[in-house]
Amino acid sequence: MEIVIIIGFVVIVLAILNIDGKLKRNLESNERIIARLDILIKNQKDKE
């Protein structure tokens, strides 16, 4: 019975780490998009 609890705990921890990794990659992607948009906004303001 203890082995089942340990295996369940390990599966839950791995699932949380997987979700965390996906969220971090998504955040990094969003930060790059925001940086590019900031550059485009600055260039547009400079043209005006």
Explain what you see.
This protein is mainly α. The chain is 96% helix and 0% strand.
Number-wise, the strands total 0
Alpha-beta classification: mainly alpha
Tell me the Rg in angstroms. 21 Å
Mean pLDDT: 95
H-E order: H
Major β-sheet, in short? none
Backbone shape: rod-shaped
Low-confidence segments, given as residue ranges, are none
Terminal CA distance: 71 Å
Number of helices: 1
Q: Residue share in helices? A: over 70%
DSSP strand content: under 5%
Labels describing this entry:
rod-shaped, 48 residues, 96% helix, mainly alpha
Question: Could you outline the blueprint of secondary structure elements for this entry?
Answer:
Blueprint: H1 2-47
Keywords: Membrane, Transmembrane, Transmembrane helix
Protein name: YrzO family protein
Give a brief rundown of this model:
The chain crosses the membrane at residues 6-23. The chain is mostly helical and 48 residues long. It is 96% helix and 0% strand.
